[in-house]
UniProtKB/TrEMBL annotation:
GO annotations of cellular component type: cytosol
Native source organism of the sequence: Enhydrobacter aerosaccus
Pfam families hit by this protein: DUF179
InterPro entries documented for this protein: AlgH-like (IPR003774)
Region of interest called Disordered, as start-end residue ranges on this chain: 187-206
Family to which this protein belongs: Belongs to the UPF0301 (AlgH) family.
Protein name (Swiss-Prot/TrEMBL): UPF0301 protein SAMN02745126_02781
SUPFAM superfamilies hit by this protein: VC0467-like
Coiled coil: none
Length: 206
């Protein structure tokens, strides 16, 4: 497991940057790895995009076990906390998606009071109670090369909705996809509910 320090660099952002928003897999998502996924976009520029799936977890690997593997004392509050499966890219690499009240030199600040840090030190601080107020450790991430995400958007593989920390850090993982879709229902005057069965490949932006 790679939890060494990484600087997450951003290039120039495109005019329609999706940083700080959710990509919500459309009901017609063709890629099985992303079906019913909710991805928080951390980076989106002319070099590509990087996001963390926030509604999928790594089976049988709680945060407490990660701490033990790294030689960190395990606080009782973290023993059973889930670890996110952030995506199919670099699945042995750890990234911490967290509230922006915590910052290190290598931290990438994101819109909406969110941040991303890749270092062993943040895990030590989390275990000691001096880390961010809210945080998920994710193994792996979701990545797109230059123009790749824009192409998928044109194919309506994704719906875009505003992100919020309450949904990012909610532990009811099974409900997150529908809750994110319900934001579309609210905007369309549908009483706050979005019926996936009614989706017909319309444009994905909300």
């Amino acid at each position: 497991m790679d939890l060494g320090e990484h600087h997450i660099m951003s290039g120039s952002s495109p005019a329609a940057s999706l940083v700080g928003r959710f990509l919500v897999a459309a009901p017609s998502m063709p890629d099985e790895r992303f079906q019913k996924s909710v991805v928080f976009i951390c980076k989106h520029d002319d070099e590509g995009a990087l996001g963390i799936i926030v509604n999928n977890t790594v089976d049988d690997l709680p945060l407490g076990q990660v701490y033990k593997q790294l030689g960190i004392d395990v606080p009782s509050s973290a023993a059973a906390q889930p670890v996110l499966f952030g995506g199919p890219v670099e699945t042995s690499r750890g990234l911490v998606l967290h509230s922006a009240d915590y910052k290190r030199d290598e931290t990438l600040l994101i819109n909406g009071g969110m941040a991303l840090t890749a270092s062993l030190e943040i895990l030590k601080d989390m275990a000691a109670g001096t880390g961010p107020r809210q945080a998920w450790l994710a193994l792996g991430h979701s990545g797109w090369g230059p123009g790749q995400l824009d192409h998928e958007m044109q194919d309506n593989a994704w719906l875009v909705v505003d992100a919020n920390p309450s949904l990012v850090f909610d532990a009811d993982f099974d409900a997150k996809w529908q809750r994110a879709l319900d934001q579309l229902g609210g905007k369309a005057g549908g009483g706050g509910k979005f019926d996936p069965a009614s989706y017909s490949h319309q444009t994905g932006r909300a």
